[in-house]
Every structure is written in C-alpha cells, then in structure tokens.
C-alpha cells in the first residue's frame, strides 16, 4: 500500500497483511435496546451513463441485496436519504422507484424501513429565481412535500421529512418554516421522523429553521415538534455537534405527551451518543451504519445484553462502536458531502457491487490517498470482510491510478 506526502506524491510503500474480519455476529431476534437505521447508498449499473447530470441508472439487484444484508443484521434501512445521493445524482424518477422497490423488499421479510420525502422534484433553476417569503414559492414547496410524502406512504414505508433546499430558499422567517411543516405534517398517516441536516452535509441548507444561530434554530425546531408531537416519532439531527445533540435529547425527553426519539445523525460522535449516559441515549439513523453494519449490529446486540442484565454488555457495545470511530471520521471528513464515495468504496472492496462507481460520477469525490487510508482504517477495525478480495481490488485500483510497488 502506498504512502503519500502532502502534495499527493507517492513516497513509499507499506507491506501489509490484511486482518481477518472482526468477530461480528447476526442477531437471533429483534434488537430492542436501540432503534437503529442504516442510511443505505445505491449501486449504479456499471455500463450505464451514470455521469454528472445524467438520470440515474441503478443496478437494482445489487442495491436491494445490500439492503437485505443490513436487515439480516437486525438494522432498519433508511432509504432515499442523502446517503442515496438525493440532490447529488439520484433524480426524482429513480428515487420513486427506489422507495417502491425497497419498501416491497422490506415487507417481504418483515423488516423496518423509512424513506425520505423532500422537494427535489422542483426545478433548481426555477427555485433560484424565488424571492424569500413569496407565498407562491412556499405553496410550491408544500405541494412538492405532499407529493413525496404520499409516494412514501403509499409504498408502505415510514416517512422521513427531509430538509429542503427549496424551503431554505423560499422561507424568510421561522414562521414560514412553521407554516410549511404544519401543512406537511397534516398529510402524515403515522408518526414521521424530522430530519435536520447541517451545512457540512449540504451548504444550500444555511439558515434552516429561519436562523444561522443554532440556539434560535433549535427553538423553532422544538416549537414545530411540540405543536405536532403526536405526528413525530423522532428527529434525526446531523449537525456533528455532540453537545448540542445531548441538550436537544434532554429537551425532547422533558416534553409532556408522546415520547419523541432522538435519532443521531452524528457520524463523528455516534459511539458516545448511542451509548448514552445516566439520563438517556440516542437512537441511530446513520450513513456510517451502512458502511459498518456488521460492527454496528454486534455493538447493538451487546447493548441489548446489557439491558438484559449482562454487566459488561454496555461497555462492550460502546467499545465496538468506538473501534470504528476513526473510520467514520475519515469517511465523513470535509468536504463531508462526499462521504458517499467512501461508503461505496468499502462496499466495492467487500464485493457487494461489481464496480467502484456511484450515480452522477460521484466516485471521483475523493482522492486516491483518501481511499487508501480508508482501506487501512477499515482493515484495522475488521471491516474488510473478504481480505483476499479486498487486496485484489485495491491492487487493481492502484494500478489503474499509476501507483505500483
């Protein structure tokens, strides 16, 4: 494996014997101590025109097989989310088919599935012309949300109300956000998950909830939840701020009425947040879980054992998750919105897709040096599940990029 200097020049070679996979286990029954979703990516058809700006052409067999692996490990699948490249290569037509196919597969095995409903069918060029506060623009956002909510519900999946670039453009005030979410949540036929995605994942979401000030935005967010508490199963927070998440988790726990879960979307600090403290823990809805699902499942089984009386269970679960933290931080390093490249790269190394590709040509989103370090870290925590295959594929990638021993 090559070593690179700061300029990207190969400066040497490391000879490395890859480790055997970790001691991962699949559960014998449902995982109960935490609710956990892995936000899964999509696999492209290798010979199709999956180039920037082209409609996505999905390899449905490989894409759905990946979801079955997640379900077999006791996790739910969060589909049609940013991990599946919403707004970064996966168009609305392909998204609808993904929602329908994945939901049908989940029903066939009695597995948990939730799918994102957003507004990305709106024309970005038209959205760019909107003036903040325009009633017609806000109405268009509501109509787009309604369409997508009904697609998800009709497929039989739980709705995740995604953050909307169009709403960030159209809204002028916290009151505009409240009115839009009032209308959207009125469409829900069962409790939804509200998704707050930070600008490190999507810079177009600056000022979401009506303010760049995190405390003010959080107050608006809590007001929306409180007004519709019976319609909200939980919230997914992807701000990469553990202190903020813990504070929000405690604020949710203090609400009267039906409980509202905090599904961590913090792909940096998930071990401590899922482990929790004496006042509670976060559940999980994570893109990193799509990459580390064998370890994540084994950790959650340990938390279950701890809840059932095993004195070492909680510590064991935390330790397993902590062993993957460096890998998670690397995959989600800035620019964070290219983390999908790392998820697909690990999927390819492990033999779960025929080529190292993403729709929209997004496999180019990370450097060779980044990918080599990802392979090192994945090997270090036992997540190269077929080391011989991973070695062959990594060698082929290096040769293609002109790096040879």
Features:
405 residues; two-stranded antiparallel sheet; 8-stranded parallel beta barrel; single chain; alpha/beta; 15 helices
What is the overall pLDDT average? 97
Pairing-aware structural class of the strands and helices?
A: alpha/beta
The percent range for strand residues is 5-15%
Largest sheet strand order: 3-4-5-6-7-8-9-10
- Tally of DSSP helical segments: 15
Rg, Å, rounded: 21 Å
Would you report the number of β strands?
Answer: 10
Order of helices and strands: EEEHEHEHHEHHEHEHEHEHHHHHH
- CA(first)-CA(last) distance: 8 Å
What is the 3D shape? globular
Point out poorly predicted stretches.
none
Helix proportion of residues, in percent? 40-55%
Largest sheet: 8 strands, parallel, barrel
Task: Explain what this protein looks like in three dimensions.
- With 405 residues, the protein is α/β, with parallel strands linked by helices.
- 45% of the residues lie in helices and 11% in strands.
- It has an 8-stranded parallel beta barrel with strand order 3-4-5-6-7-8-9-10, surrounded by 5 helices.
- Helix 12 runs antiparallel to helix 14 (368-380) and helix 13 (339-349) crosses helix 14 (368-380).
- It starts with a strand and ends in a 5-residue tail after the last helix.
- The model has no long low-confidence stretch (mean pLDDT 97).
């Amino acid at each position: 494996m090559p070593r690179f200097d700061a300029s990207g020049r190969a400066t040497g070679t490391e000879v490395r014997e890859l480790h055997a996979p970790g001691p991962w286990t699949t559960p014998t029954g449902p995982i109960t101590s935490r609710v956990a979703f892995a936000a899964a990516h999509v696999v492209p058809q290798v010979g199709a025109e999956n180039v920037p700006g082209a409609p996505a052409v999905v390899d449905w067999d490989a894409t759905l097989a990946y979801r079955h692996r997640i379900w077999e490990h006791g996790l739910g699948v969060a589909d049609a989310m940013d991990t599946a490249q919403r707004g970064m290569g996966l168009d609305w037509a392909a998204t609808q088919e993904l929602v329908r196919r994945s939901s049908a597969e989940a029903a066939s095995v009695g597995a948990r599935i939730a799918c994102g409903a957003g507004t990305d069918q709106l024309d970005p060029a038209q959205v760019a012309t909107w003036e903040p506060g325009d009633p017609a623009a806000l109405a268009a956002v509501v109509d787009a949300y309604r369409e997508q909510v009904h697609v998800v519900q009709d497929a039989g999946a739980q709705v995740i109300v995604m953050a909307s670039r169009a709403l960030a453009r159209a809204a002028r005030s916290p009151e505009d956000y409240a009115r839009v979410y009032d209308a959207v949540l009125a469409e829900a036929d069962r409790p939804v998950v509200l998704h707050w995605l930070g600008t490190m994942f999507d810079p177009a979401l600056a000022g979401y909830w009506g303010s760049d000030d995190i405390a003010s935005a959080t107050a608006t967010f809590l007001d929306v939840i409180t007004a519709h508490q019976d319609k909200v199963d939980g919230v997914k927070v992807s701000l990469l701020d553990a202190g903020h998440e813990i504070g929000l988790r405690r604020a949710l726990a203090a609400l009267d009425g039906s409980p509202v879960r905090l599904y961590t979307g913090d792909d940096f600090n998930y071990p401590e947040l899922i482990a929790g403290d004496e006042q509670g823990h976060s559940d999980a809805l994570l893109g990193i879980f799509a990459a580390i699902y064998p370890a994540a499942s084994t950790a959650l089984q340990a938390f279950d054992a701890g809840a059932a009386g095993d004195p070492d269970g909680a510590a064991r679960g935390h330790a397993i998750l902590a062993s993957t933290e460096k890998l998670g931080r690397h995959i989600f390093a800035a620019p964070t919105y290219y983390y999908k490249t790392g998820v697909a790269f690990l999927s390819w190394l492990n033999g779960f897709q025929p080529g190292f590709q993403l729709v929209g040509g997004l496999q180019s989103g990370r450097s060779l040096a980044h990918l080599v370090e990802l392979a090192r870290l994945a090997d270090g925590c036992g997540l190269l599940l077929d080391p011989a295959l991973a070695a062959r594929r990594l060698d082929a990638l290096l040769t293609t990029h002109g790096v040879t021993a």
